[in-house]
Amino acid sequence: MSKDAPGIANRILFISFFLMLLLVTAGFLGISTGSSGTGFKPVWWALINDSRSDPMSAAIIWNIRLPRVILAALVGATLSLGGLVFQALLRNPLAEPYILGVSGGSAIGAIIGILMGFSRFPGVSTTAFCGSMATLLLLLLMSSGHSKFKDSLLLSGVMVNAFAGAIIMFLMSMTQDSRLHNIMFWLMGDLSLADMHQIGILAIVLLPCFGLIFRFSHSMNLLLMGPEVAETMGVNIRFVTVALLVITSFMVSITVSYCGPVGFVGLVMPHLLRLVLGPDHRTLVPACIIGGGSYMVLCDILSRVLPEQGEMPAGVVTALIGAPLFIYLLKRSGR
Length: 335
Hints:
The protein has helices at 5-32, 40-47, 55-90, 102-115, 120-143, 149-173, 183-187, 196-215, 217-224, 227-232, 237-259, 265-277, 281-305, 314-334.
């Protein structure tokens, strides 16, 4: 055990406690907000199963809003953590599943799975994972051997993402399948179809992935120092890199199969948390999990509050926030 282990453990606990308070607050706001009203007191009564709670309000909270809040938290945690891993492995603060085209590849695989009549899990999730891995391999092949690997990878990702969008539009135009009737809404990051049973499956799959990535957090710190330093410190670079890429692509593909590609979450949260907490991945990994979940819940609240009628996909809100930040970071990295 390293000498700074007790201090790091205390710091992780403190940061996690503070961010968990933020997540609980955002979650309570999430289940209190909606087109059918419901204030804070009715929500509290429904949650504690108080006799004063209205049966209709309780049904809305337990069957619609609470599953949606939990799904938003899982999606935000996954995408934020995915962005952190890609940024560490590629040593590029602009790397993110959506920008690199991994989310687009997952979406293509998910649509193919839907057209083939597969169940969401494991069928559509498996085809989405295959799509994300194929995209990742294509990116690495396009960028390998280039003198400016990081810049080449980013540009390749933007191009692959655009090409994935064209393939998605082609698949949509060639099918009359009723299951793809609302595909445009899904492609913008839709959390409205949250179901508690499916969320339970999603949580069972994702939580072990979070734990595995945390186990690699110290290795990610060493990788940031360069491959030579990491290797002298005992890091099996090939194994760690492949394991993190597979785990992250799997997490992102599972998430995309449930709610579509949600952009820029993996860019905003790791960058913000790194500015506040520093570069240590032992604290950044749990912070991204909890903080990313809170951020996505808040974005979902905005998606329901901003439109005068109905709601917009949560992915629209994350893009409105993340795209300007991406342009800012791109200009700063250019300087």
